[in-house]
Amino acid sequence: MKKRQTLSEYKNGVLEGNRSTLAQAITLVESNRPTDKELAAKLVQEILPQTGNSIRIGITGVPGVGKSTFIESFGTTLVNSGRKVAVLAIDPSSQRGKGSILGDKTRMETLAGDKRAFIRPSPSGTSLGGVSAKTREAMLLCEAAGYDTILIETVGVGQSETAVRGMVDFFLLLMLAGAGDELQGIKKGIMEMADALLINKADGNNLKESKLARQHYLQALHLFPPSENGWYPKVELVSSIEKSGLEEAWDMIQQYENHTKSNGFWKKNRSDQRLKWLDENLQMMLSELILSNKSVQSLLDTHKDGIKSGDISPLWVAQEAIKILTQNYS
Ligand code: GDP
Question: Where are the annotated coiled coils located (predicted)?
Answer without folding.
Answer: none
